[in-house]
Specification:
heterodimer; A: alpha+beta; Cytochrome Bc1 Complex, Chain A, domain 1; 2 domains; seven-stranded mixed β-sheet; five-stranded mixed β-sheet; 15 helices; 18% strand; disordered N terminus; B: 680 residues; alpha+beta; outer membrane lipoprotein receptor (LolB), chain A; 14-stranded antiparallel β-sheet; six-stranded mixed β-sheet; 21 helices; 33% helix
Chain lengths: 442, 680
């Protein structure tokens, strides 16, 4: 058993916010093995959320073995040396808890919410899958089939389901963001058991993870248990493979048509974004709200209500660690040519680039952002996720309390500037989703 | 922003705590904290509006949610109307246009939603008066503008078209029709016709009848106490006028006598959506409500359930398999569902039925029951994290006439359930032999395997039965063609026609679309131009043994195979040429086309491309033609032109165009001179 260093500190942060954003108190500590532990105490409901964020996503994968991070999301429910196959989900649910996980291009996130008297069990179980998950051929073979059906259900069989992968494939020529999180089924078929074991050793280790405990806890007890179960897990490699690839700036528009099983055409436009922690992210997020957030937003009002050329329009800044995409999609209304609708979208973008945003609209955006941020931390599960992402993406857990002030730093002129700088017509990807003139219908 | 970091040295006791943990077993839980159910304050206004208040000042927000309790409504030939009420309410008031409403709501960062039985508003505490002002303006003063309805109809038509390709939408339509029948509020579905039937007057009448305080509940939840809530409620809702609201009742459908297997053929499917469903009586106030929650949890309520463990974790057929037992004061349904691997469609159905049957016949284990109780208790406990839960509990208690201690004794009642209770519910409510087994998938691949479950009934993507009728023995493909040629004026007369020019006009979104056709059979030439506002949008030209399609400024020559397919449409009366072109004909039963019985004829060219024609059984005339390339073309309004009957209305439905194109023939002329210029 390894010895504890007395130099570890707990930091309690008492940030005082001038705005309505309700402050989230927390304590945090880094264990000797590098595991970062964040705790938030709220005794109002007898529940606790426990989560582990592993800083590994699809971008860390070998280009010949895509889909591994997501595969692990499934595999780590299979069991551990002490927890039998299929028992993981059963146990959490049979103690009155709920659990799930997700994988993105940047991270894999596992969480459970359990009655607070079961905190120790939740910590034990998360520590088990970090220490010694059981990865065997039966589990691999089963989950491979499950994932194939997940892919069919979520992408192939779903109208417009391939928008994201088709966009990313074109938006990123160099960066690993080009392949989908769910990965290639061929790669998964080829992968050997040993490769999965190796992948686990490389990333699913304490010094690449954040453990978060939020809810009905006492700080001392929670920390004691966190140490008891996690401290013995050996530290992983000193460094981790993180792709150091800068996606080159595009000089030409990429334009394609995707024929899908749909009846109503859709248009997708995507623009590459700066890294998530870049200061322009806030202005870009406000810009997306200006364009399509709410019924009075520029594009919703003009294209859905006034011209009625679109059934729906949405601008989503998919902000990723190394820079994601500003994704805009719109579904055409009955009988509207996609080119016609696209022209109108472009006109509105040019309008923002030329005229910027007026003072009243800017005030409105600030009010909307304030409302959204207040509502963001309304559940223990949400707080746990926001705390751990603050630590991993912004290097500072207290970012959770500073987000609003970051938005407040955005000036009205910044919106016009980022519209010009990032929404450039010659660097974008445009996809038309058109109906497959396929089988005769009877 | 100010940060103070306090460094605290670790206590020695922490070190002692982790000395040794036993990893071989699960830790013992700490004593459970009792789950406290907060109370909602309540009061009733003079107009009958019941108000419930739950204070929770964790976040500086307040939510006002108004809900109406009325019986379900059968919309009949206006199906889809209820779905538009909410947007129509927000479509403008006598004080504010829609633009002003949208702007004012967004300006304070609030959200206000409305539906046919609800209006919901939430905002930061500091904006609560403004939010209420907007909410009640929508409630009292909606003006239901005509143009807003037109927009919604257009959006609904687009949405309906999109849903015809969406497997889950298709299956839920089919389920509702099978479970409840067309003539029930839960079974009827909107169609193009019913959407077009909706008028502003219908919306107004609904609003006048049902938006009344005497059937309404208002929940006020958040950073607000009872005194303030009472003041606000009186200020904003006391003037709402009450009025008697009609009640309705409906026949209760029953589960089918035997299993019915229903298939919607969706040729593009790469996996199959499989459902097992039937109607059942179950509601919050039903004595078996809790036992059926436990029963469903064990069968398919989550990722530890029998269905999930069998179909996903053991067989790998699916990403997830679940079941549900609904609760509704009129009628609920049982439903088990999974999206499964195409080749495992029949096996998945077998396993789902097996699990239902096994649970019914052999019951649950004590261990399963304990796990289910713990999970349902946990989920009850978690739901209390949200302050609106307590308000919902209070409203449900009133709304569904539950006993006053329904929620406060919920956990005790749950914990008292026995294995026998659940096994009895399993026998009463699980019906593996009286279910609709509905499937949406690729018929070519799966239809045969489904026959193992009984006769496969086929339905279209709107949930209507596909009908086929047997053909009289002495009718064959030849005679159907002869009848058709006879019906239009005789083969001899038709053969005399060598050239033709035809012009038709369609209207789409107020824009005129012109279509001109030129046929020159002697030279095997054909031209079809589609023009919009005077500009040619597309041009298909066949001449000199090749075919080109020009659209959006780009020309493309068709491949040999496409050329052969295109040739199928270059004749004025293709039926005259089938034999000469070496086409094969196959008569494939009788189908209903727009309410008329028609012979279905599959015409295949030598390269295998097919066109399907439908000829009226009664009149002999061609009613419809369809092919993969051109979509569906319906012919009607036959009129005599130079002794030949010609369809003056052609309706094109194609996957390439979102709504049916109604082309009216304006000019048609036979044996006219075709110039070089005509074929450019």
């Amino acid at each position: 058993m390894r010895k504890l260093s007395l130099s570890l500190v707990l930091s309690a942060i008492l940030a005082i916010s001038a705005h309505a954003q309700t402050k989230i108190e927390f304590k945090e500590v880094t264990l000797d093995n590098g595991l970062h532990v964040v705790m938030h105490k709220d005794n109002s409901t007898p529940i606790v959320a426990v989560s582990v964020l592993y800083h590994v996503g699809s971008k860390n994968e070998n280009p010949e073995r895509t889909g591994f991070a997501h595969f692990f999301e499934h595999l780590l429910f299979e069991g551990t040396e002490n927890i039998g196959r299929g028992e993981y989900m059963n146990k959490i649910q049979s103690i009155g808890g709920t659990l799930n996980a997700f994988t993105s291009n940047d991270i894999t996130y596992y969480y459970e919410v359990v009655p607070s008297n079961q905190l120790e069990t939740a910590l034990y179980m998360e520590s088990e899958r970090m220490l010694h998950p059981k990865i065997d051929q039966v589990g691999v073979d089963t989950q491979r089939e499950v994932i194939k059906e997940e892919k069919r259900q979520s992408y192939d069989n779903r109208p417009y389901g391939t928008i994201l992968p088709e966009t990313m494939k074109r938006a990123f020529q160099k960066h690993p963001y080009q392949w989908p999180v769910i990965g290639s089924m061929e790669h998964l078929d080829l992968a050997q058991l040993q490769e999965f074991m190796d992948f686990h050793k490389s990333y699913y280790v304490p010094n690449n993870a954040v453990l978060t405990i939020a809810g009905d806890i006492e700080y001392d007890q929670a920390e004691e248990w966190a140490r008891a179960y996690f401290e013995e897990i050996p530290k992983g490699p000193e460094s981790f493979y993180r792709p150091d690839v800068k996606e080159p700036k595009k000089s030409e528009e990429i334009r394609d048509i995707i024929y899908d099983n749909i009846q109503i055409p859709a248009i997708v436009q995507s623009y590459n974004l700066p890294p998530k922690s870049h200061k322009d992210s806030y202005a870009l997020s406000m810009l997306s709200t200006y364009l399509t957030g709410g019924n009075s937003s520029l594009m919703t009002k003009e294209l859905v209500d006034n011209q009625q050329k679109a059934l729906a329009v949405a601008a989503i800044p998919l902000d990723l660690e190394d820079g994601g995409v500003f994704l805009m999609y719109s579904i055409a209304n009955m009988g509207i040519e996609p080119a016609d609708l696209e022209g109108e979208i472009d006109n509105l973008i040019s309008k923002v680039q030329e005229e910027g945003v007026n003072e009243r609209d800017f005030q409105k955006l600030q009010n909307i952002i304030e409302n959204n941020l207040v509502s963001k931390n309304s559940s223990m599960a949400g707080i746990a996720q926001n705390l751990s992402q603050a630590k991993v993406f912004f290097g500072d857990t207290n970012y959770i309390n500073e987000e609003l002030s970051k938005y407040r730093e955005v000036k009205r002129e910044d919106l016009q500037r980022v519209a010009k700088e990032y929404l450039t017509l010659d660097g974008r990807v445009v996809l038309y989703y058109l109906p497959k003139s396929a089988e005769t219908t009877e | 922003m100010k940060k103070i970091f306090i460094a605290i040295l670790l206590f020695a006791s922490v070190q002692a705590g982790f000395a040794q943990v036993d990893r071989s077993t699960y830790p013992e839980p700490a004593p459970a904290r009792e789950i406290q159910l907060g109370d909602a304050d309540s009061f009733t206004l003079e107009n009958g509006l019941k108000v419930f208040v739950v204070k929770n000042d964790k976040l500086p927000r307040v939510a006002f949610s108004l809900v109406l309790e009325r019986d379900p409504i059968l919309e009949g030939d206006k199906a889809g109307m209820l779905g538009m009420i909410g947007e129509m309410l927000k479509g403008g008031t006598s004080n504010r246009t829609k633009d002003q409403l949208d702007e004012e709501i967004d300006f304070i960062g609030a959200s206000i939603n409305a539906g046919s039985t609800s209006i919901f508003a939430s905002s930061l505490k500091k904006h609560q008066d403004k939010a209420l002002d907007l909410m009640t303006d929508i409630l009292y003063n909606p003006i239901f503008p005509e143009e807003e309805l037109d927009k919604l109809k257009k959006q609904n038509l687009t949405g309906l078209a999109a849903s015809k390709d969406e497997p889950n939408a298709i299956v839920s339509r089919l389920n509702s029709i099978l479970n409840f029948g067309d003539n029930h509020p839960y079974g009827e579905n909107e169609t193009e016709t019913t959407i077009k039937n909706i008028e502003v007057e219908d919306i107004k009448a609904y609003y006048e009848t049902y938006f009344r305080p005497n059937i309404a509940y208002l929940a006020i939840v958040g950073d607000i106490d009872k005194a303030e809530a009472e003041k606000l409620a009186n200020t904003y809702f006391a003037k709402w006028e009450k009025k008697e609201v009609p009640s309705k009742s409906y026949d209760k459908p029953s589960a089918p006598e035997n299993n019915v297997i229903a298939l919607v053929d969706r040729a593009a499917s790469v996996q199959s959506v499989v459902n097992v469903t039937y109607p059942l009586e179950m509601s919050l106030s039903h004595p078996d409500y809790l036992t059926t929650r436990v029963l469903n949890y064990i069968l398919g309520g989550g990722s530890s359930s029998r269905l999930f463990m069998n179909l996903r974790e053991d067989k790998g057929y699916t990403y997830g398999a679940y079941s549900s037992i609904g609760a509704d004061k009129v009628m609920a349904t049982f439903r088990a569902t999974a999206n499964v691997k195409q080749t495992a469609t029949d096996s998945a159905i077998t396993e789902i039925i097996y699990e239902i049957k096994n649970l019914r016949d052999n019951g649950v284990t004590a261990e399963e029951l304990e796990a289910a109780k713990a999970n349902l208790s946990g989920s009850f406990g978690r739901s209390l994290e949200s302050p609106s839960t307590i308000a919902n509990f209070a409203i449900n208690t009133e709304r569904y006439g539950l006993s006053d201690d329904f929620y406060s004794t919920y956990l005790q009642k749950l914990s008292a359930l026995t294995v026998e209770d659940i096994n009895k519910a399993a026998k009463d409510y699980l019906k593996p032999e009286n279910a609709y087994i509905t499937v949406v998938g690729n018929g070519n691949e799966i239809a045969e395997s489904l026959m193992a479950f009984g006769e496969v009934q086929k339905f279209d993507n709107m949930g209507q039965p596909e009908r086929t009728i047997a053909i009289d023995g002495d009718i064959d493909a030849e005679s159907v063609i002869q009848n058709y040629l006879e019906a239009i004026g005789g083969a001899d007369k038709a053969k005399e026609i060598k050239t033709s020019k035809m012009e038709s006009v369609a209207e789409i979104q107020g824009m005129k679309l012109g279509m001109s056709y030129i046929y020159d059979e002697q030279n095997q030439a054909f031209s079809n131009k589609v023009s919009m506002m005077g500009n040619v949008a597309s041009h298909t030209l066949i001449k000199d043994g090749k075919a080109t399609v020009t659209a959006m400024g780009q020309s493309q020559e068709l491949t040999d195979e496409q050329y052969e397919a295109a040739k199928m449409s270059m004749f004025i009366f293709p039926e005259l040429h089938y034999e000469m072109m070496g086409y094969s004909l196959e008569l494939d039963g009788i189908r209903e086309i727009e309410g008329e019985q028609a012979f279905k004829m599959v015409v295949s060219n030598p390269t295998g491309a097919t066109t399907i024609n439908y000829y009226s059984v009664d009149s002999g005339l061609k009613l419809k033609s369809e092919s993969a390339e051109t979509g569906e073309m319906f012919f009607s309004d036959y009129e005599e032109v130079e002794g030949i009957k010609y369809p003056m209305m052609m309706i094109l439905k194609s996957p390439m165009i979102p709504m049916p194109l109604e082309a009216k023939v304006e000019k048609v002329a036979f044996n006219v001179t075709i110039s070089e210029d005509d074929l450019k």
